[in-house]
Each structure stands twice: as C-alpha cells, then as structure tokens.
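Give me the fold.
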Amino acid sequence: MAESHVISALTNKRSELLGEIDHLEALIKEHKENLLTIDKTIYIFDSSYNLKSIKAKRVVKDRYFKVGEAKVLLLDALRKLGRPAKTDEIVDILIDKKSLEIQSEYEKSTFQKSVVASLSRAVDNGLIERVGRDGLTMIWQIRKPN
C-alpha cells in the first residue's frame, strides 16, 4: 500500500496543476474573445481583408524581470560582491533581492535560465565576462576596462 504522505503530496500537486489548467483555459478563452473582437473591427474597415495573412508573433515574456531590470540587478550583485561569482550564487542573490518565493525545483530552474540568459546578454554587451567554471557552473565577473 502506498504511503499516505506520498498520496497526499501527489493529490496536492494534482490539485495545483488542475488549478493552473483552469486559469490558463480561462486566459485562452479571454484571448480568443479579444481576437474575435479585433477581427470584427478589421472587417468594419476592410471587409475583404484576409485575416489568414496575419502571422502569429512569437511572444517571449520574462515573468521575473521588467525590461532592463535583470541587467541592473546582475551588475549590482557582482559589484557588491566585489569578486567573481558562480551562477548559483548570483541566482540566490537575485531571488533574495526580488523577494521571490520559489516553490519548486522547476520554478528555480526556470528562474535560473532567465538569469543565465541575462548574463549571456551582458557578456554580449561587454558588461561582464565569464572567468571560469566550477564543474558545470560558470563563474562571472564585471568586465574590467582595457
């Protein structure tokens, strides 16, 4: 027989996922209604307009940072540390700085991917640099002027 705490944890997770699905389905319904309204409005102005010619835009939303915020927080964290830092350390500093309540390993992984993407953009912009690695973890520092 299965352990009751395992069943309890799984039923809680199932309940959480069902809630997320309900929320996302409601959001999809709302977006479809808005799309229909826009389509009708386009037809008011041009009844022969081919709506199929409108391609979907790829939308990437960073749910953790506002535009430019990650770069500022990363640089601030590295500046305050005053030394090179591992990705994990930077992630933990930013979680604390933003007062995030990370609920699962998946959520932490998603946040970490967002931070790594911001770190990579900062490297591309010449603001920071990779100075090594510790196993699979990269080590970063503010780029020193030449």
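The longest helix spans residues 4-45.
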